[in-house]
Amino acid sequence: MSLDELKLKIKEEIPISSVIGNYLSIKKSGSSLLSLCPFHSDSKPSMHINDTKKMFKCFACDAAGDAIGFVMKYRNLDFVDALKEICQKQGINFDSYQEDKKSNPKLDMAKKILTKTAQLYRKTATTHKFIPYDDFIKKRGLSEEIATTYNLGFAPARNSLCDYLSSIPNDKDKTFALSIAEELGLIKRDRNNNEVHYDTFRDRIIFPIWDQFGQVIGFTSRAIRDDQKAKYMNSVDSFVFNKRNILYGFHLAKNAIREKDAVILVEGNMDQIALYNNGFHHTVAVMGVALGAPSLERLIGMTKNIYLALDSDGAGFTAMERINRQLAASGVVAKYLEFSPEKDPDEFLQMQGALAFQEKIDNAGTCFDVLLNKILPEKLPEVLDRKLEILNRVFEMMSPLGRHLAASERVVGLAKRLGLKAEPAQIVKTYEEFLEKIEAKEKVAARFQPKVKPAPASKYDEVEDEDPGISALEISELELQSKVIEEPKKILSKTEKLVVQELVQLPALFSEEKTLELLDLVSSVEVKKYIGKVRKVILEIDESEYSSVISNLTSSPEYSPELREAVSSALFKYKARELDAKTKNKILHDLKTKLQMELLKNKKDEIKKLQQACESEEEMTKLLQSLSELEVNLQALKKTKREI
Ligand SMILES: [Zn+2]
Predict the structure, then answer these.
(1) What is the pLDDT of residues 55-103, one digit of tens each?
(2) How far is the CA of 522 from the centre of ligand 1 (A)?
(3) Architecture of 245-371 per CATH?
Protein backbone atom coordinates (compact mmCIF):
# COMPACT_ATOMS: atom_id res chain seq x y z
CA MET A 1 0.00 0.00 0.00
CA SER A 2 1.35 3.40 -0.92
CA LEU A 3 1.44 6.35 1.45
CA ASP A 4 -1.29 7.99 -0.59
CA GLU A 5 -3.46 4.95 -0.08
CA LEU A 6 -2.69 4.99 3.63
CA LYS A 7 -3.67 8.66 3.67
CA LEU A 8 -7.01 7.82 2.08
CA LYS A 9 -7.61 5.03 4.54
CA ILE A 10 -6.85 7.31 7.46
CA LYS A 11 -9.26 9.88 6.12
CA GLU A 12 -11.96 7.29 5.60
CA GLU A 13 -11.48 5.27 8.76
CA ILE A 14 -10.70 7.68 11.52
CA PRO A 15 -13.05 10.47 12.46
CA ILE A 16 -11.23 13.78 12.30
CA SER A 17 -12.55 14.60 15.77
CA SER A 18 -10.74 11.56 17.12
CA VAL A 19 -7.46 12.78 15.59
CA ILE A 20 -7.83 16.38 16.76
CA GLY A 21 -9.07 15.12 20.13
CA ASN A 22 -5.57 13.80 20.74
CA TYR A 23 -4.34 17.37 21.01
CA LEU A 24 -7.25 19.64 21.87
CA SER A 25 -10.30 19.36 24.00
CA ILE A 26 -13.43 19.23 21.88
CA LYS A 27 -16.83 20.41 23.00
CA LYS A 28 -20.12 19.30 21.56
CA SER A 29 -22.48 22.16 20.86
CA GLY A 30 -25.73 21.05 19.33
CA SER A 31 -24.79 18.95 16.36
CA SER A 32 -21.38 20.53 15.85
CA LEU A 33 -18.03 19.89 17.45
CA LEU A 34 -16.05 22.91 18.57
CA SER A 35 -12.60 23.58 19.90
CA LEU A 36 -10.43 26.53 20.79
CA CYS A 37 -8.40 27.22 17.66
CA PRO A 38 -4.67 26.70 18.28
CA PHE A 39 -3.73 28.70 15.20
CA HIS A 40 -4.76 32.10 16.49
CA SER A 41 -5.23 33.38 20.00
CA ASP A 42 -8.74 32.17 20.47
CA SER A 43 -10.94 32.98 23.43
CA LYS A 44 -14.17 31.32 22.34
CA PRO A 45 -14.18 28.02 20.51
CA SER A 46 -13.96 29.15 16.88
CA MET A 47 -12.76 25.93 15.31
CA HIS A 48 -15.45 23.71 13.86
CA ILE A 49 -14.73 20.04 13.40
CA ASN A 50 -16.92 18.08 11.04
CA ASP A 51 -16.68 14.29 11.02
CA THR A 52 -19.02 13.92 8.07
CA LYS A 53 -17.08 16.32 5.89
CA LYS A 54 -13.82 15.11 7.48
CA MET A 55 -12.67 18.72 7.79
CA PHE A 56 -11.83 21.31 10.40
CA LYS A 57 -12.31 25.02 9.88
CA CYS A 58 -11.69 28.04 12.06
CA PHE A 59 -14.13 30.82 11.32
CA ALA A 60 -11.91 33.42 12.92
CA CYS A 61 -8.56 32.82 11.23
CA ASP A 62 -9.64 30.63 8.31
CA ALA A 63 -7.32 27.77 9.18
CA ALA A 64 -8.85 24.67 7.60
CA GLY A 65 -8.00 21.21 6.33
CA ASP A 66 -8.32 17.50 6.94
CA ALA A 67 -7.04 15.38 9.82
CA ILE A 68 -3.56 14.95 8.40
CA GLY A 69 -3.38 18.64 7.53
CA PHE A 70 -4.27 19.46 11.11
CA VAL A 71 -1.50 17.31 12.55
CA MET A 72 1.01 18.71 10.05
CA LYS A 73 0.11 22.26 10.97
CA TYR A 74 -0.34 21.79 14.70
CA ARG A 75 2.74 19.65 15.27
CA ASN A 76 4.72 21.28 12.49
CA LEU A 77 5.42 17.92 10.86
CA ASP A 78 5.87 16.92 7.28
CA PHE A 79 3.35 14.65 5.60
CA VAL A 80 5.02 11.32 6.40
CA ASP A 81 5.73 12.20 10.02
CA ALA A 82 2.17 13.38 10.49
CA LEU A 83 0.92 10.04 9.12
CA LYS A 84 3.27 8.24 11.47
CA GLU A 85 2.04 10.18 14.46
CA ILE A 86 -1.60 9.54 13.60
CA CYS A 87 -0.91 5.83 13.14
CA GLN A 88 0.88 5.70 16.45
CA LYS A 89 -1.93 7.43 18.31
CA GLN A 90 -4.65 5.36 16.63
CA GLY A 91 -2.93 2.03 17.14
CA ILE A 92 -2.22 1.45 13.46
CA ASN A 93 1.05 -0.23 12.60
CA PHE A 94 2.69 2.25 10.28
CA ASP A 95 5.66 -0.02 9.62
CA SER A 96 3.43 -2.72 8.20
CA TYR A 97 2.29 -0.20 5.58
CA GLN A 98 5.86 0.71 4.95
CA GLU A 99 6.58 -2.94 4.34
CA ASP A 100 3.56 -3.05 2.11
CA LYS A 101 4.86 -0.10 0.21
CA LYS A 102 8.11 -1.86 -0.50
CA SER A 103 5.90 -4.41 -2.22
CA ASN A 104 6.02 -7.55 -0.19
CA PRO A 105 5.42 -10.43 -2.62
CA LYS A 106 4.38 -12.75 0.18
CA LEU A 107 1.76 -10.34 1.44
CA ASP A 108 0.58 -9.53 -2.07
CA MET A 109 0.14 -13.23 -2.80
CA ALA A 110 -1.66 -13.79 0.53
CA LYS A 111 -4.14 -11.02 -0.21
CA LYS A 112 -4.73 -12.34 -3.70
CA ILE A 113 -5.34 -15.88 -2.45
CA LEU A 114 -7.65 -14.72 0.34
CA THR A 115 -9.73 -12.59 -2.01
CA LYS A 116 -9.90 -15.37 -4.62
CA THR A 117 -10.81 -17.98 -2.01
CA ALA A 118 -13.68 -15.84 -0.75
CA GLN A 119 -14.92 -15.45 -4.33
CA LEU A 120 -14.58 -19.16 -5.00
CA TYR A 121 -16.66 -20.18 -1.95
CA ARG A 122 -19.23 -17.49 -2.68
CA LYS A 123 -19.59 -18.67 -6.25
CA THR A 124 -19.95 -22.27 -5.09
CA ALA A 125 -22.74 -21.25 -2.73
CA THR A 126 -24.66 -19.22 -5.30
CA THR A 127 -24.33 -21.33 -8.41
CA HIS A 128 -24.30 -24.93 -7.25
CA LYS A 129 -27.42 -24.98 -5.05
CA PHE A 130 -26.02 -26.81 -2.06
CA ILE A 131 -28.94 -27.79 0.13
CA PRO A 132 -27.14 -27.39 3.49
CA TYR A 133 -26.16 -23.83 2.56
CA ASP A 134 -29.67 -22.89 1.42
CA ASP A 135 -31.13 -24.46 4.57
CA PHE A 136 -28.75 -22.50 6.74
CA ILE A 137 -29.65 -19.18 5.13
CA LYS A 138 -33.36 -19.94 5.37
CA LYS A 139 -33.21 -21.16 8.96
CA ARG A 140 -31.32 -18.08 10.07
CA GLY A 141 -33.75 -15.79 8.30
CA LEU A 142 -30.95 -14.20 6.29
CA SER A 143 -31.91 -12.30 3.18
CA GLU A 144 -30.06 -12.68 -0.11
CA GLU A 145 -28.91 -9.12 0.45
CA ILE A 146 -27.28 -10.02 3.76
CA ALA A 147 -25.66 -13.10 2.26
CA THR A 148 -24.18 -10.87 -0.44
CA THR A 149 -23.08 -8.17 2.02
CA TYR A 150 -21.28 -10.78 4.11
CA ASN A 151 -20.07 -12.68 1.07
CA LEU A 152 -21.27 -15.92 2.66
CA GLY A 153 -19.95 -18.98 0.91
CA PHE A 154 -19.88 -22.72 0.89
CA ALA A 155 -16.90 -25.09 0.91
CA PRO A 156 -17.99 -28.42 -0.59
CA ALA A 157 -16.62 -31.82 0.42
CA ARG A 158 -13.91 -31.77 -2.19
CA ASN A 159 -10.65 -29.95 -2.73
CA SER A 160 -11.98 -27.02 -4.70
CA LEU A 161 -9.37 -24.55 -3.48
CA CYS A 162 -6.46 -26.94 -4.11
CA ASP A 163 -7.82 -27.59 -7.57
CA TYR A 164 -8.06 -23.89 -8.24
CA LEU A 165 -4.49 -23.18 -7.05
CA SER A 166 -3.11 -26.16 -8.94
CA SER A 167 -4.57 -24.76 -12.14
CA ILE A 168 -2.10 -21.83 -12.05
CA PRO A 169 -0.14 -22.31 -15.30
CA ASN A 170 3.31 -21.07 -14.24
CA ASP A 171 4.99 -23.75 -12.06
CA LYS A 172 6.92 -21.28 -9.94
CA ASP A 173 3.80 -19.20 -9.23
CA LYS A 174 1.83 -22.34 -8.46
CA THR A 175 4.36 -23.60 -5.90
CA PHE A 176 4.53 -20.17 -4.29
CA ALA A 177 0.72 -19.89 -4.12
CA LEU A 178 0.37 -23.36 -2.59
CA SER A 179 2.98 -22.62 0.06
CA ILE A 180 1.29 -19.33 1.03
CA ALA A 181 -2.14 -20.97 1.12
CA GLU A 182 -0.66 -23.59 3.42
CA GLU A 183 0.83 -20.92 5.67
CA LEU A 184 -2.57 -19.24 5.85
CA GLY A 185 -4.07 -22.56 6.91
CA LEU A 186 -6.41 -22.75 3.94
CA ILE A 187 -4.95 -26.01 2.68
CA LYS A 188 -3.01 -28.79 4.36
CA ARG A 189 -0.34 -31.20 3.24
CA ASP A 190 -1.25 -34.86 3.12
CA ARG A 191 0.61 -36.69 5.90
CA ASN A 192 1.20 -39.75 3.74
CA ASN A 193 2.09 -37.97 0.56
CA ASN A 194 4.03 -34.75 0.91
CA GLU A 195 3.29 -33.79 -2.67
CA VAL A 196 -0.46 -33.76 -2.18
CA HIS A 197 -2.59 -31.04 -0.56
CA TYR A 198 -6.17 -31.05 0.59
CA ASP A 199 -8.63 -28.26 1.55
CA THR A 200 -8.94 -27.35 5.23
CA PHE A 201 -12.57 -26.27 4.99
CA ARG A 202 -14.84 -29.02 3.69
CA ASP A 203 -18.61 -29.27 4.00
CA ARG A 204 -18.75 -25.93 5.73
CA ILE A 205 -20.57 -22.61 5.54
CA ILE A 206 -17.88 -20.00 5.00
CA PHE A 207 -17.77 -16.51 6.50
CA PRO A 208 -14.96 -14.29 5.25
CA ILE A 209 -13.30 -12.09 7.89
CA TRP A 210 -12.11 -8.62 6.95
CA ASP A 211 -9.70 -6.15 8.43
CA GLN A 212 -10.92 -2.66 9.26
CA PHE A 213 -10.34 -1.61 5.66
CA GLY A 214 -12.46 -4.38 4.15
CA GLN A 215 -9.64 -6.64 2.92
CA VAL A 216 -10.34 -10.36 3.44
CA ILE A 217 -7.77 -11.65 5.94
CA GLY A 218 -9.21 -15.00 6.96
CA PHE A 219 -12.29 -17.14 7.39
CA THR A 220 -14.48 -18.62 9.98
CA SER A 221 -16.62 -21.59 9.10
CA ARG A 222 -19.51 -23.55 10.48
CA ALA A 223 -20.06 -27.27 10.18
CA ILE A 224 -23.22 -28.48 8.43
CA ARG A 225 -23.47 -31.88 10.14
CA ASP A 226 -23.35 -32.92 13.79
CA ASP A 227 -20.64 -35.53 13.20
CA GLN A 228 -18.09 -32.98 11.99
CA LYS A 229 -15.24 -32.50 14.42
CA ALA A 230 -15.48 -28.79 15.13
CA LYS A 231 -18.72 -26.84 14.89
CA TYR A 232 -16.80 -23.63 14.25
CA MET A 233 -13.37 -23.47 12.68
CA ASN A 234 -11.31 -20.29 12.24
CA SER A 235 -8.32 -19.45 10.08
CA VAL A 236 -5.12 -20.01 12.01
CA ASP A 237 -3.21 -16.95 13.18
CA SER A 238 -0.70 -15.95 10.52
CA PHE A 239 1.18 -12.96 9.22
CA VAL A 240 -2.09 -11.47 8.01
CA PHE A 241 -4.53 -12.82 10.58
CA ASN A 242 -4.44 -12.11 14.28
CA LYS A 243 -7.60 -13.13 16.03
CA ARG A 244 -7.13 -10.67 18.83
CA ASN A 245 -6.99 -7.64 16.60
CA ILE A 246 -10.12 -8.43 14.68
CA LEU A 247 -13.46 -6.80 15.14
CA TYR A 248 -15.72 -8.83 12.90
CA GLY A 249 -18.00 -6.64 10.79
CA PHE A 250 -16.16 -3.43 11.65
CA HIS A 251 -15.93 -2.23 8.06
CA LEU A 252 -19.72 -2.62 7.75
CA ALA A 253 -20.48 -1.13 11.16
CA LYS A 254 -18.17 1.86 11.34
CA ASN A 255 -20.50 4.46 9.84
CA ALA A 256 -23.39 3.37 12.03
CA ILE A 257 -21.13 3.43 15.10
CA ARG A 258 -20.25 7.02 14.34
CA GLU A 259 -23.82 8.01 13.55
CA LYS A 260 -25.31 6.43 16.66
CA ASP A 261 -22.31 7.26 18.82
CA ALA A 262 -22.63 3.75 20.23
CA VAL A 263 -21.44 0.23 19.56
CA ILE A 264 -22.76 -3.20 20.47
CA LEU A 265 -20.07 -5.76 21.12
CA VAL A 266 -20.99 -9.41 20.58
CA GLU A 267 -19.08 -12.67 20.93
CA GLY A 268 -19.44 -14.38 17.59
CA ASN A 269 -19.85 -13.65 13.93
CA MET A 270 -23.35 -15.17 13.84
CA ASP A 271 -24.50 -12.71 16.51
CA GLN A 272 -22.99 -9.85 14.55
CA ILE A 273 -24.80 -10.90 11.37
CA ALA A 274 -28.06 -11.45 13.23
CA LEU A 275 -27.94 -7.98 14.79
CA TYR A 276 -27.01 -6.35 11.51
CA ASN A 277 -29.82 -8.27 9.82
CA ASN A 278 -32.23 -6.80 12.39
CA GLY A 279 -31.15 -3.23 11.80
CA PHE A 280 -28.54 -2.95 14.57
CA HIS A 281 -25.81 -1.96 12.16
CA HIS A 282 -23.55 -0.59 14.90
CA THR A 283 -22.48 -4.07 15.99
CA VAL A 284 -19.07 -5.72 15.92
CA ALA A 285 -17.93 -9.12 17.15
CA VAL A 286 -14.80 -10.05 19.01
CA MET A 287 -13.27 -13.28 17.79
CA GLY A 288 -13.15 -15.49 20.85
CA VAL A 289 -13.45 -13.45 23.99
CA ALA A 290 -10.30 -11.42 23.79
CA LEU A 291 -10.26 -7.78 22.87
CA GLY A 292 -6.79 -6.74 21.74
CA ALA A 293 -5.43 -3.31 22.58
CA PRO A 294 -5.67 -2.04 18.97
CA SER A 295 -9.34 -3.10 18.75
CA LEU A 296 -10.06 -1.47 22.06
CA GLU A 297 -8.43 1.78 21.04
CA ARG A 298 -10.18 1.77 17.70
CA LEU A 299 -13.57 1.43 19.38
CA ILE A 300 -13.17 3.96 22.15
CA GLY A 301 -11.71 6.38 19.63
CA MET A 302 -15.12 6.31 17.95
CA THR A 303 -17.54 6.13 20.85
CA LYS A 304 -17.65 5.84 24.61
CA ASN A 305 -21.08 4.20 24.58
CA ILE A 306 -20.29 0.52 24.52
CA TYR A 307 -22.86 -2.22 25.06
CA LEU A 308 -21.61 -5.71 25.85
CA ALA A 309 -24.02 -8.28 24.41
CA LEU A 310 -22.25 -11.56 25.11
CA ASP A 311 -23.47 -15.12 25.58
CA SER A 312 -25.61 -15.90 28.61
CA ASP A 313 -23.33 -18.67 29.87
CA GLY A 314 -20.53 -18.52 32.43
CA ALA A 315 -17.91 -17.97 29.75
CA GLY A 316 -19.85 -14.99 28.43
CA PHE A 317 -20.08 -13.55 31.90
CA THR A 318 -16.33 -13.95 32.45
CA ALA A 319 -15.72 -12.27 29.11
CA MET A 320 -17.98 -9.41 30.15
CA GLU A 321 -16.03 -8.94 33.39
CA ARG A 322 -12.78 -8.93 31.53
CA ILE A 323 -13.76 -6.57 28.72
CA ASN A 324 -15.48 -4.27 31.20
CA ARG A 325 -12.22 -4.07 33.14
CA GLN A 326 -10.27 -3.25 30.01
CA LEU A 327 -12.72 -0.52 29.06
CA ALA A 328 -12.82 0.89 32.58
CA ALA A 329 -9.07 1.28 32.51
CA SER A 330 -9.64 3.63 29.60
CA GLY A 331 -12.30 5.52 31.51
CA VAL A 332 -15.26 3.90 29.74
CA VAL A 333 -18.15 2.51 31.78
CA ALA A 334 -19.67 -0.20 29.61
CA LYS A 335 -23.34 -1.18 29.60
CA TYR A 336 -24.52 -4.76 29.90
CA LEU A 337 -27.21 -6.56 27.91
CA GLU A 338 -28.44 -9.82 29.39
CA PHE A 339 -30.37 -12.42 27.40
CA SER A 340 -31.11 -15.41 29.59
CA PRO A 341 -33.01 -17.70 29.30
CA GLU A 342 -31.97 -17.25 25.65
CA LYS A 343 -28.38 -18.30 25.13
CA ASP A 344 -27.15 -15.38 23.05
CA PRO A 345 -28.29 -12.21 21.28
CA ASP A 346 -28.94 -14.16 18.06
CA GLU A 347 -31.36 -16.52 19.79
CA PHE A 348 -32.92 -13.63 21.68
CA LEU A 349 -33.66 -11.86 18.41
CA GLN A 350 -35.19 -15.00 16.94
CA MET A 351 -37.38 -15.58 19.98
CA GLN A 352 -38.32 -12.04 20.98
CA GLY A 353 -37.58 -9.78 18.04
CA ALA A 354 -35.88 -6.47 17.38
CA LEU A 355 -38.24 -4.31 19.45
CA ALA A 356 -37.52 -6.33 22.57
CA PHE A 357 -33.83 -6.02 21.78
CA GLN A 358 -34.09 -2.25 21.48
CA GLU A 359 -35.85 -2.21 24.81
CA LYS A 360 -32.89 -4.04 26.32
CA ILE A 361 -30.60 -1.36 24.97
CA ASP A 362 -32.78 1.47 26.26
CA ASN A 363 -32.92 0.00 29.76
CA ALA A 364 -29.37 -1.33 29.97
CA GLY A 365 -27.55 -0.91 33.26
CA THR A 366 -23.80 -0.77 33.57
CA CYS A 367 -21.65 -3.88 33.83
CA PHE A 368 -20.38 -2.57 37.15
CA ASP A 369 -23.85 -2.48 38.65
CA VAL A 370 -24.47 -6.05 37.56
CA LEU A 371 -21.14 -7.16 39.00
CA LEU A 372 -21.63 -5.27 42.25
CA ASN A 373 -25.03 -6.86 42.75
CA LYS A 374 -23.32 -10.23 42.45
CA ILE A 375 -20.87 -9.34 45.20
CA LEU A 376 -23.62 -8.52 47.68
CA PRO A 377 -24.93 -11.68 49.33
CA GLU A 378 -28.70 -12.06 49.50
CA LYS A 379 -28.63 -11.86 53.27
CA LEU A 380 -26.38 -9.06 54.42
CA PRO A 381 -23.81 -10.16 56.99
CA GLU A 382 -24.13 -8.91 60.56
CA VAL A 383 -20.46 -9.04 61.41
CA LEU A 384 -18.49 -5.88 60.70
CA ASP A 385 -15.37 -7.69 59.46
CA ARG A 386 -17.37 -9.60 56.91
CA LYS A 387 -18.91 -6.34 55.68
CA LEU A 388 -15.47 -4.79 55.32
CA GLU A 389 -14.31 -7.83 53.41
CA ILE A 390 -17.12 -7.28 50.92
CA LEU A 391 -16.29 -3.58 50.71
CA ASN A 392 -12.72 -4.52 49.89
CA ARG A 393 -13.93 -6.63 46.99
CA VAL A 394 -15.95 -3.67 45.82
CA PHE A 395 -12.79 -1.53 45.93
CA GLU A 396 -10.97 -4.14 43.90
CA MET A 397 -13.72 -4.30 41.34
CA MET A 398 -13.94 -0.54 40.89
CA SER A 399 -10.18 0.00 40.86
CA PRO A 400 -9.72 -0.02 37.06
CA LEU A 401 -11.84 3.13 36.99
CA GLY A 402 -9.47 4.75 39.46
CA ARG A 403 -10.66 8.01 40.96
CA HIS A 404 -13.40 8.43 38.39
CA LEU A 405 -16.56 9.80 39.96
CA ALA A 406 -18.39 6.76 38.58
CA ALA A 407 -16.20 4.64 40.88
CA SER A 408 -16.36 6.65 44.10
CA GLU A 409 -20.13 7.12 43.81
CA ARG A 410 -20.61 3.38 43.55
CA VAL A 411 -18.21 2.65 46.36
CA VAL A 412 -20.13 5.02 48.64
CA GLY A 413 -23.46 3.56 47.52
CA LEU A 414 -22.34 0.02 48.26
CA ALA A 415 -21.01 0.98 51.69
CA LYS A 416 -24.45 2.35 52.48
CA ARG A 417 -26.19 -0.80 51.27
CA LEU A 418 -23.85 -2.83 53.46
CA GLY A 419 -25.08 -0.76 56.40
CA LEU A 420 -21.67 0.73 57.16
CA LYS A 421 -21.93 3.84 59.25
CA ALA A 422 -18.83 5.71 58.08
CA GLU A 423 -19.23 9.08 56.35
CA PRO A 424 -19.01 9.03 52.52
CA ALA A 425 -15.83 11.12 52.67
CA GLN A 426 -14.21 8.52 54.88
CA ILE A 427 -15.23 5.72 52.51
CA VAL A 428 -13.82 7.60 49.52
CA LYS A 429 -10.59 8.27 51.39
CA THR A 430 -10.20 4.58 52.25
CA TYR A 431 -10.90 3.67 48.62
CA GLU A 432 -8.24 6.11 47.44
CA GLU A 433 -5.73 4.63 49.87
CA PHE A 434 -6.56 1.24 48.40
CA LEU A 435 -5.87 2.63 44.91
CA GLU A 436 -2.55 4.11 46.01
CA LYS A 437 -1.48 0.71 47.27
CA ILE A 438 -2.36 -0.93 43.95
CA GLU A 439 -0.59 1.77 42.01
CA ALA A 440 2.54 1.42 44.10
CA LYS A 441 2.50 -2.34 43.56
CA GLU A 442 1.99 -1.96 39.83
CA LYS A 443 4.88 0.45 39.60
CA VAL A 444 7.22 -1.94 41.37
CA ALA A 445 6.04 -4.79 39.16
CA ALA A 446 6.46 -2.68 36.05
CA ARG A 447 9.98 -1.76 37.01
CA PHE A 448 11.15 -5.31 37.49
CA GLN A 449 9.11 -6.91 34.75
CA PRO A 450 8.39 -4.54 31.93
CA LYS A 451 5.76 -6.87 30.55
CA VAL A 452 3.71 -8.31 33.34
CA LYS A 453 1.62 -11.18 32.15
CA PRO A 454 -1.39 -11.47 34.41
CA ALA A 455 -2.29 -14.93 35.58
CA PRO A 456 -5.36 -16.24 33.76
CA ALA A 457 -8.42 -15.25 35.74
CA SER A 458 -10.32 -18.38 34.87
CA LYS A 459 -10.13 -21.61 32.99
CA TYR A 460 -11.85 -19.90 30.14
CA ASP A 461 -8.95 -17.50 29.80
CA GLU A 462 -6.45 -20.29 29.54
CA VAL A 463 -7.73 -21.42 26.20
CA GLU A 464 -6.94 -18.00 24.80
CA ASP A 465 -3.84 -17.63 22.74
CA GLU A 466 -0.71 -15.69 23.46
CA ASP A 467 -0.59 -12.49 25.42
CA PRO A 468 -0.70 -9.45 23.14
CA GLY A 469 2.24 -7.85 24.93
CA ILE A 470 1.37 -4.73 26.80
CA SER A 471 -2.29 -4.88 27.64
CA ALA A 472 -4.64 -1.97 27.29
CA LEU A 473 -4.83 -2.07 31.05
CA GLU A 474 -1.16 -1.35 31.34
CA ILE A 475 -1.19 1.28 28.63
CA SER A 476 -3.82 3.28 30.37
CA GLU A 477 -2.27 2.97 33.79
CA LEU A 478 -0.79 6.42 33.55
CA GLU A 479 -4.01 7.81 32.28
CA LEU A 480 -5.82 6.15 35.12
CA GLN A 481 -3.58 7.73 37.69
CA SER A 482 -4.34 11.13 36.34
CA LYS A 483 -8.09 10.82 36.61
CA VAL A 484 -9.11 12.89 39.56
CA ILE A 485 -12.52 13.97 40.65
CA GLU A 486 -13.25 17.26 38.92
CA GLU A 487 -12.26 20.45 40.65
CA PRO A 488 -13.02 23.95 39.53
CA LYS A 489 -10.43 24.96 36.99
CA LYS A 490 -8.58 28.22 36.94
CA ILE A 491 -7.15 29.57 33.77
CA LEU A 492 -3.39 29.73 34.05
CA SER A 493 -1.61 33.02 33.92
CA LYS A 494 1.04 33.94 31.40
CA THR A 495 3.90 33.27 33.80
CA GLU A 496 2.39 30.03 35.05
CA LYS A 497 2.16 28.91 31.48
CA LEU A 498 5.80 29.84 31.00
CA VAL A 499 6.78 27.86 34.11
CA VAL A 500 5.01 24.77 32.80
CA GLN A 501 6.65 25.13 29.41
CA GLU A 502 10.17 25.66 30.74
CA LEU A 503 9.88 22.64 33.02
CA VAL A 504 8.48 20.41 30.30
CA GLN A 505 11.19 21.46 27.91
CA LEU A 506 13.92 20.90 30.50
CA PRO A 507 12.77 17.89 32.52
CA ALA A 508 16.01 17.93 34.54
CA LEU A 509 14.46 20.84 36.43
CA PHE A 510 11.64 18.73 37.82
CA SER A 511 13.88 16.93 40.25
CA GLU A 512 15.30 20.16 41.71
CA GLU A 513 14.25 21.10 45.24
CA LYS A 514 13.84 24.67 44.10
CA THR A 515 11.03 23.66 41.79
CA LEU A 516 8.97 23.05 44.90
CA GLU A 517 9.57 26.65 45.96
CA LEU A 518 8.17 27.71 42.62
CA LEU A 519 4.99 25.80 43.32
CA ASP A 520 4.35 27.93 46.39
CA LEU A 521 4.14 30.95 44.15
CA VAL A 522 1.79 29.34 41.64
CA SER A 523 -1.85 30.01 42.29
CA SER A 524 -3.39 27.71 39.68
CA VAL A 525 -4.39 24.44 41.34
CA GLU A 526 -4.19 22.75 37.98
CA VAL A 527 -0.57 23.75 37.41
CA LYS A 528 0.42 22.68 40.93
CA LYS A 529 -1.21 19.33 40.45
CA TYR A 530 0.23 18.86 37.00
CA ILE A 531 3.80 19.62 38.01
CA GLY A 532 3.45 17.39 41.05
CA LYS A 533 2.30 14.53 38.85
CA VAL A 534 5.05 14.92 36.27
CA ARG A 535 7.64 15.08 39.07
CA LYS A 536 6.47 11.68 40.26
CA VAL A 537 6.19 10.08 36.84
CA ILE A 538 9.54 11.30 35.68
CA LEU A 539 11.34 9.22 38.28
CA GLU A 540 9.87 6.09 36.79
CA ILE A 541 10.67 6.51 33.14
CA ASP A 542 13.48 6.53 30.68
CA GLU A 543 14.53 9.59 28.79
CA SER A 544 13.50 7.91 25.54
CA GLU A 545 9.95 7.51 26.79
CA TYR A 546 9.67 11.07 28.02
CA SER A 547 7.81 12.69 25.12
CA SER A 548 5.25 9.97 24.68
CA VAL A 549 4.60 9.48 28.39
CA ILE A 550 4.15 13.20 29.02
CA SER A 551 1.94 13.72 26.02
CA ASN A 552 -0.17 10.77 27.09
CA LEU A 553 -0.45 12.03 30.62
CA THR A 554 -1.35 15.51 29.45
CA SER A 555 -4.02 14.37 27.03
CA SER A 556 -6.33 13.60 29.94
CA PRO A 557 -9.49 15.73 29.73
CA GLU A 558 -8.81 16.55 33.37
CA TYR A 559 -6.53 19.32 32.14
CA SER A 560 -7.66 22.56 30.60
CA PRO A 561 -7.06 23.17 26.89
CA GLU A 562 -4.68 25.99 27.86
CA LEU A 563 -2.45 23.68 29.84
CA ARG A 564 -2.59 20.93 27.25
CA GLU A 565 -1.71 23.35 24.53
CA ALA A 566 1.15 24.88 26.53
CA VAL A 567 2.60 21.43 27.17
CA SER A 568 2.31 20.17 23.63
CA SER A 569 4.07 23.20 22.19
CA ALA A 570 6.83 22.79 24.81
CA LEU A 571 7.16 19.09 24.06
CA PHE A 572 7.56 20.00 20.46
CA LYS A 573 10.65 22.02 21.35
CA TYR A 574 11.95 19.43 23.77
CA LYS A 575 15.36 17.92 23.13
CA ALA A 576 17.07 15.65 25.63
CA ARG A 577 20.01 17.55 27.08
CA GLU A 578 22.14 17.83 30.21
CA LEU A 579 22.05 20.96 32.35
CA ASP A 580 24.79 22.00 34.75
CA ALA A 581 23.88 23.15 38.25
CA LYS A 582 24.55 26.81 37.49
CA THR A 583 22.20 26.89 34.50
CA LYS A 584 19.50 25.09 36.43
CA ASN A 585 19.79 27.59 39.26
CA LYS A 586 19.62 30.51 36.93
CA ILE A 587 16.53 29.28 35.12
CA LEU A 588 14.72 28.45 38.33
CA HIS A 589 15.63 31.73 39.92
CA ASP A 590 14.44 33.55 36.87
CA LEU A 591 11.12 31.77 36.91
CA LYS A 592 10.74 32.44 40.59
CA THR A 593 11.32 36.16 40.09
CA LYS A 594 8.86 36.26 37.27
CA LEU A 595 6.22 34.55 39.38
CA GLN A 596 6.84 36.92 42.26
CA MET A 597 6.57 39.88 39.97
CA GLU A 598 3.36 38.62 38.53
CA LEU A 599 1.92 38.16 41.99
CA LEU A 600 2.91 41.68 42.94
CA LYS A 601 1.46 43.09 39.76
CA ASN A 602 -1.79 41.27 40.37
CA LYS A 603 -1.90 42.74 43.85
CA LYS A 604 -1.25 46.16 42.41
CA ASP A 605 -4.17 45.79 40.03
CA GLU A 606 -6.35 44.70 42.91
CA ILE A 607 -5.37 47.73 44.96
CA LYS A 608 -6.05 50.02 42.04
CA LYS A 609 -9.52 48.58 41.74
CA LEU A 610 -10.07 49.07 45.45
CA GLN A 611 -8.90 52.66 45.12
CA GLN A 612 -11.58 53.35 42.56
CA ALA A 613 -14.24 52.03 44.87
CA CYS A 614 -12.71 53.57 47.97
CA GLU A 615 -14.90 56.01 49.94
CA SER A 616 -13.00 57.10 53.06
CA GLU A 617 -9.77 59.04 53.14
CA GLU A 618 -8.32 56.77 55.79
CA GLU A 619 -8.79 53.76 53.61
CA MET A 620 -7.24 55.55 50.67
CA THR A 621 -4.11 56.34 52.68
CA LYS A 622 -3.74 52.69 53.60
CA LEU A 623 -4.13 51.62 50.03
CA LEU A 624 -1.55 54.12 48.85
CA GLN A 625 0.84 52.86 51.47
CA SER A 626 0.43 49.26 50.36
CA LEU A 627 0.87 50.36 46.82
CA SER A 628 4.17 52.07 47.50
CA GLU A 629 5.42 49.03 49.45
CA LEU A 630 4.53 46.87 46.51
CA GLU A 631 6.34 49.20 44.19
CA VAL A 632 9.51 48.98 46.34
CA ASN A 633 9.33 45.18 46.27
CA LEU A 634 8.83 45.18 42.55
CA GLN A 635 11.82 47.41 41.97
CA ALA A 636 13.96 45.21 44.21
CA LEU A 637 12.91 42.18 42.26
CA LYS A 638 13.70 43.83 38.98
CA LYS A 639 17.15 44.65 40.31
CA THR A 640 17.96 41.08 41.37
CA LYS A 641 16.69 39.92 38.03
CA ARG A 642 19.21 42.11 36.28
CA GLU A 643 22.03 41.03 38.57
CA ILE A 644 21.63 37.33 37.96
ZN1 LIG B 1 -8.20 30.17 14.23
Answers:
(1) 999 988 888 999 999 998 888 888 888 888 898 887 777 776 665 455 6
(2) 29
(3) 3-Layer(aba) Sandwich (3.40)
